[in-house]
Amino acid sequence: MDLCHVPATREKGWYLALMAPNVKGPNYAWLDPSRLYCHPQGLQDCVADLLQPFQGDAIDMVAGIDAMGFILGAAAAATLQKGFLAIRKAGHLCVQTLAQPYTDYSGREKVMEVRTDAISPGLRILLVDQWVETGGTMRAAIELVERLGGVVAGVAAICMENSEGGKWIQERYKCSHCVPPRLQPRFDQHQ
Questions:
Q1: Among positive and negative, which fits the CA dihedral 114, 162, 155, 9?
Q2: Could you tell me which residue ranges the Phosphoribosyltransferase domain spans (predicted)?
């Protein structure tokens, strides 16, 4: 798809066609949304679709998850006119942090960190990531926010797969994603 072309009719998820399949093997996600971010209208519509369910909700800050969640999270924070908090992989923050171990979508053990001075008790945080496949990364971010006394106001991602972890998150938190119901089975099966 041309990075300048905007379809005459833009229904929710039209921009998903901008994503490219994995050509590098099993250590990478099965689909790469980074091309979507290059398309000005695609990015705007994606962020608008992610935020639509939260219209009127109390959100104090947006947190993006390392690293691709930084793109959507920062765009969402700018749209909402809220601050942005980076939840990082361990070893990247030079300030006091709280750490949480987790297993990512590829089965690798990792550690997520957040600065301890950004979340005060009761602060309502919208968590944003590019993708929720197994839910391990998002669940670690949720645990960090809650351990610091913050409230998870919602979870947003381009796709939330119907995996065990994805379902766990969707059952407990208000969630938003961009995949229309008719396409969800294809995304769950990585087609």
A1: positive
A2: 56-178
47 alpha-carbon distance from chain centroid: 11
Q: What does the block give as tokens for 164?
A: 């065990």
Q: Which residues fall within 8 angstroms of residue 80, CB to CB, at 6 or more apart?
A: 51, 59, 62, 126
Residue where the block lists tokens 């590098």: 24
- Evaluated on CA atoms 27, 142, 91, 35, the torsion sign reads positive
What integer is the mean pLDDT of 116-134? 97
Strand partners, 109: 103
Q: Report pLDDT digits (tens) over 40-93.
A: 999 999 999 999 999 999 999 999 999 999 999 999 999 999 999 999 999 999
Q: Which of 17, 18, 21, 72 is nearest to 49 (CA)?
A: 72
Rounded Cα distance between 71 and 11, Å, is 22
Query: Cβ neighbours of residue 3 under 8 Å, at least 6 residues apart?
Result: 18, 35, 38, 39
Burial 132-163 (b: 16+ CB within 10 A, else e): bbbbbbbbbbbbbbeebebebbbbbbbbbbeb
What's the per-residue H, E or C state across 88-116? EECCCCCCCEEEEEEECCCCCEEEEEEEC
